[in-house]
DNA sequence: TTCAGGATGTACT
DNA sequence: GTACATCCTGAAC
């Protein structure tokens, strides 16, 4: 890797800043002797204190949301719609519920393994449609990267699942409204979705 | 290229 | 029982 692993201090900051700064960073998952590496292209921020779209809105504590209160630099993984996983990076201080959802990436290393994880076929055997929509959604990223609820609570400063920075010119970052949270009233309009 | 509908299980009411 | 930070397929355009 040309750049250094992100430390806990990186995650221990304002969630919107972390969400922006994660763009362009590499996510590495070491699994079964292989290294799967992707470059982050899209994120969304979720901040429990003020955000009705956040699982831990208003200080809500349940078995599921407990991880959102963990120390910064922790992985929060949950199951959605009964069959897909979503990976988040916990931010801000311990006891504060906030995280960044990983929404889209592009493959850097291990693309064939990711294609097999997702479609059971090599990259070269995918249809044009599958190739175009390879890693552009949170459920797709987790399937390709072999990330499940078993990774919930994992320390992102360890050796299994971690990130390397990073840094993009501000002009390359786009901010817009989040998607898939139509129920969240005024929070629907928060410009907390970031992409390259 | 867009669209509707279904799959599927856990958390929470 | 209901909703859910989603994705895939197949049909219509």
The average pLDDT score comes to 95
- SSE pattern, N- to C-terminal: HHEEEEEHHHEEE
Helix content: 10-25%
Number of continuous helical runs: 5
- General shape: globular
E-strand count: 8
Distance between the termini: 21 Å
Cα Rg = 16 Å
Strand content: 25-35%
Biggest sheet, open or closed, and with what strands and sense? 8 strands, antiparallel
Low-confidence stretches: none
What structural class should be given to the helix and strand makeup? alpha+beta
Could you explain the architecture of this structure?
By secondary structure, the chain is α+β, with helices and mostly antiparallel strands. 17% of the residues lie in helices and 28% in strands. It has helices at residues 8-11, 15-21, 111-119, 128-132, 138-145, and strands at residues 26-31, 34-47, 75-80, 84-90, 98-109, 161-164, 174-176, 193-195. Strands 1, 2, 3, 4, 5, 6, 7 and 8 form an eight-stranded antiparallel beta sheet that branches. Helix 3 (111-119) crosses helix 5 (138-145). It is globular. The structure holds a DNA duplex (13 and 13 nucleotides).
